[in-house]
Amino acid sequence: MSDPLSTLPGYLLRRASAAALAGLNRRLAPLGLRHVDASLLLILHSMPGTTQSEAGRLLDIQRANMVPIVSRLEGRGLIDRQKVDGRSQGLHLSAKGDALCAEVREEIEAYELALLAGLPDDMREGAVAVLDAFWRAAEALNVEAPSGEEG
Amino acid sequence: MSDPLSTLPGYLLRRASAAALAGLNRRLAPLGLRHVDASLLLILHSMPGTTQSEAGRLLDIQRANMVPIVSRLEGRGLIDRQKVDGRSQGLHLSAKGDALCAEVREEIEAYELALLAGLPDDMREGAVAVLDAFWRAAEALNVEAPSGEEG
DNA sequence: CCTTATCGTTATAGATCATAACAAATGACA
DNA sequence: TGTCATTTGTTATGATCTATAACGATAAGG
């Protein structure tokens, strides 16, 4: 046996994810963005007014870790904060952010197509569903046990 | 449209990978290991004498970043270094490391089965191949362009 | 000997992530 | 009204992971 890792979904996921994210970051670098930034812009494009906590939940990023991300994008004038609440702030794309978001969408869609084009023909159709299924399966395992089974 | 990310392979890969790795780390925590450590133990179990550079290439980890990993495992008496060369050192599991590796394999195989069990029946068979295909596709894109097209 | 490449290593900086804590605001409820 | 649990944004901190550059020692090919 030469590679004991080649059958382990966890390892294969990590490897594929790292490669894909590297490619994505490389494409986004000319725009001065990382993939996290780009994801947030896409969210705000589709769902203007999303708060940073909500966006964090969508992106699986903790509230605390959203702070530098939002600050960075706000500092660049790409997004605005509008008070929704006494505590919540809805995030919106600025004009500049919206323009950049259009470029982001082009880059990401091109990358997505290129990635899917690199798959064997017979896998292409169901591939995205497989990734989603892996996420659901892994999440189910994480919810099942992690810090007490009080449910 | 509510979630603009749900069709993007890159995002889905990242999310699935993060969830799977979190679950794996949680299972390995009682053994005092992280998934990277566990991967290295598995490699050394199947391929004793692998050097740390070779292992780094298998794991997609830079030489420099292998140093703390190997040092940590050596410090715990789980692996030994045996000079192969004037410069290379073959890594081997110690008796203690081999015993721990057996536990690691149990945990990882259990996790792998649980993860696959959580997939829809019609996806289970080809799922691992899809992950491998995504990696190959992403790698191909990364090799194609990244630092000059002198080929 | 010289050149080139590899290995292990150190150092450094940036990203990512988890956790704990806090003030302010909100909602539920008596 | 007041009380209590929850949520939001925030600061701070430490751990982990990654990328890059550099160095000395070694190896391989001339």
Ordered list of secondary-structure elements with their pairings:
The structure is a homodimer of 151-residue chains.
Chain A: H1 9-28, H2 35-46, H3 52-59, H4 63-75, E1 79-83, E2 89-93, H5 95-117, H6 121-144
Antiparallel strand pairs in A: 1-2
Helix pairs in contact in A: 1-5, 2-5, 3-4
The structure holds a DNA duplex (30 and 30 nucleotides).
InterPro entries (chains A, B): HTH_MarR-typ, MarR/SlyA-like, WH-like_DNA-bd_sf, WH_DNA-bd_sf
Organism (chains A, B): Novosphingobium umbonatum
GO molecular function (chains A, B): DNA-binding transcription factor activity
Strand order of the largest sheet of chain A: 1-2
CATH topology of chain A: Arc Repressor Mutant, subunit A
Average pLDDT for all residues of chain A: 90
Number of domains of chain A: 1
Count of DSSP strands of chain A: 2
Please state roughly what percent of the residues of chain A sit in beta strands, choosing from under 5%, 5-15%, 15-25%, 25-35%, 35-45% or over 45%: 5-15%
Describe the protein's architecture and organization:
Chains A, B: InterPro entries: HTH_MarR-typ, MarR/SlyA-like, WH-like_DNA-bd_sf, WH_DNA-bd_sf. Chains A, B: One of its GO terms (molecular function) is DNA-binding transcription factor activity. Chains A, B: This is MarR family transcriptional regulator. Chain A has 151 residues and is mostly helical. Chain A has one domain: Winged helix-like DNA-binding domain superfamily/Winged helix DNA-binding domain (Arc Repressor Mutant, subunit A). Chain A is 66% helix and 7% strand. Chain A is built from six helices and two strands. In chain A, strands 1-2 form a two-stranded antiparallel ribbon. In chain A, helix 2 crosses helix 5. The radius of gyration of chain A is 18 Å and the shape is globular. At the A-B interface, helix 1, helix 2, helix 5 and helix 6 of A face helix 1, helix 2, helix 5 and helix 7 of B. Chain A binds a DNA duplex (30 and 30 nucleotides) through helix 4.
